[in-house]
């Protein structure tokens, strides 16, 4: 039986889900670079032939560690769903002579290199400048129009995003972004392979999105993501996922599969996504490409990752289309043939191919308009289920790995920390995408009163 070394670090789809899909294809050996979530211990014990948890990964050569462990278990492939480990795994696969994302994987991780590569290939994107010091930020701000967005080059989940509205914002934004990246590193949400990555930033123009020009129904955000797989350098787009409007600065609060774009618009989005992926020179890996939708058909690539979309993006694809993208990638990494699901060149699975819809909601302490909750509340999934806010026939579940225990105070939303201040992640399955959006809108508006208040004597 084929063997796969599964390299676990924070981020990506729930570990229980990802492990089960890999285990269906091969014998799994787990390399634990981050502490396992408590909810996953049973499935790890049940599905993994071996588990290795190095005592101190920070002081080790991560590529050498992965390489040695792959050799020790006789791995035929190495896989990670984590943004923070993709570069190390790609480099290890290069050393081992195994299929993987390839030597250019770093281009899909470092946003500065990504942007420069797209510039060289003429891929439509926001204008940007790399910044390594506060002085660099001042110089970049003199060249781009306000407002502009500062972001960490190696971050994920909108962490350390800062909107600069004028010169007076530069110094505090620089200080706050560095603080957030340091705190994220302490929580395990940081690049594992590249030293000093938490000090790398860029600033970019904020392009104007217009969801109304692309979607017939209200409630959609102004960007989509193209989910797919690259196999031996060929991009195979699978489907599009939509979003609800983000919370300032640009924190995602909900993703919906499928995105209800007309077919001609889907083709244009996929064409741009393929150009962006092709420019990066990736070999064999999952892909997640985000594209901003503007007026008069304008589009800009926001970023591409050499891994599948995080949170519940991958489970949503399987729920709606019956397609196991992790299983497809594992098959290709093991040299097996794959029957790609898209109906034709440049096309993706869409609403006509879907069985219902699925969406994931990030619970943040802001209401539907993005305003902070007036008081502190306790996370209580049972209270949400009892609220009667979910449509008849729809099904809401809690993603335990990404949710606080019931009875825990919901964190105050911190725009700079992005998804790091989420209380929970919930999955909703319904008959159609519009029902998902309407249910999420009701939840966002009702949670500040539907959840129990933090007792006065128990305020943190």
UniProtKB/TrEMBL annotation:
Keywords: ATP-binding, Ligase, Nucleotide-binding. It comes from the Bacteria. InterPro entries: ATP-dep_AA_Ligase (IPR052032), ATP-grasp (IPR011761). GO terms for molecular function: ATP binding; ligase activity; metal ion binding. Residues 115-334 form the ATP-grasp domain. Gene3D superfamilies: 3.40.50.20, ATP-grasp fold, B domain (3.30.470.20). Pfam families: ATP-grasp_4. PANTHER family: ATP-GRASP ENZYME FSQD, FUMIPYRROLE BIOSYNTHESIS PROTEIN C. This is Alanine-anticapsin ligase BacD. It comes from Streptomyces himastatinicus ATCC 53653.
